[in-house]
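ok so for the tutorial part 2 we go from a plain amino acid sequence to predicted C-alpha cells. step 1 is just haveing the sequence, like this:
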Amino acid sequence: MEINQDLNKPVDDNSLDTIEMKEVKETMEQRPVNPEPIPENPVTPAAPAEKDTCNNKKPCCHTWLLVCNIILLIGLILLYIFHFTGFGTKSKHNPNAAAPVVAKDGVLKIAWIDSDTLLAKYQYAIDLQEELNKYKESQEKHYQEQVAKFQKDYQNFIQTGENMTLSQQQATEAELKQRADKIGALEAELTQKVMQKQMDSNIELLNRIFAFVREYNAANQQFDLIMRKTFNDSPTMYINPAMDITNEIIEGLNEEYKSVKGKKASK
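step 2 — the prediction. this is what the C-alpha cells look like for a chain of 267 residues:
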C-alpha cells in the first residue's frame, strides 16, 4: 500500500487536528481545581500564597503548557517515522543497485553486429540447423511409420473381422483402440521433443557467440557497448556503418569452430 507523502515536505499538522483539538476542547471544558492552601509551618511562617492569576473559565497556564508539549511530542514522533523509516513515500530506492558505468575517457565506444548475417555465415549455426532438421525428419518419419502400420492393421481387421469369433473381434478392437490412443499421444510427445531440441540448440549457440564476443572485445577494441541488430526485431532505426564489426566477428567465430571441430575429429 502506497501513501502519498513527500519526505521533503514538513509533516502536515492538519492530519493531527482531530486528535489535538479534541484534547484541547476536553481540557478547556474542565474547570481547574483551586490550589489547596499551603499549611503553616509552626517553626517558620510560610510565605503568603500567591494568587492564581488563571481565570476559572479558562485552563490554567500549566495545563496549556502540558497540551503544547504533547502536541510537539506527537509532531516529532511522526516526523521521525516519515523521515527515517520511509513510511508514506513512493520511493523504490534500492541500496544495492549498481552505479552507472562511465567511460574513463569521457567517450562511449559503441559497435554493432548484424545477427541475421552472423547466423547465415557462422558455420556452427549452419551445422546446428542441419542437425536439428535431421532430428525433426527422423521424428516425423517415426510417427508416420506408426500411423501407416495402424491404418494397415485397421483395414485388415475390417476385411477379415467377420471371419473371427466374437471374442477375437472384441480383443482386436480393444488392441486397435489402445494403439490409436498411443498414436495420438505420440504426436504431441514427438512435437515436444523437437521443440526442446531446438531450444537447447539455440541456448548452446547463443552462449558460444556471447562468450566469443566478450573474449574478442577484451583482447581487441574493448568497446563499452556492442549492440545486436536484426531485420525484424531491432531497437534502432539507424546505426552508423562504421560501427559494424559483423564480418570480423564471423571470421573469428569460424576460425574458433574450425579449430574445435578439428580437435574433435582427431580424437
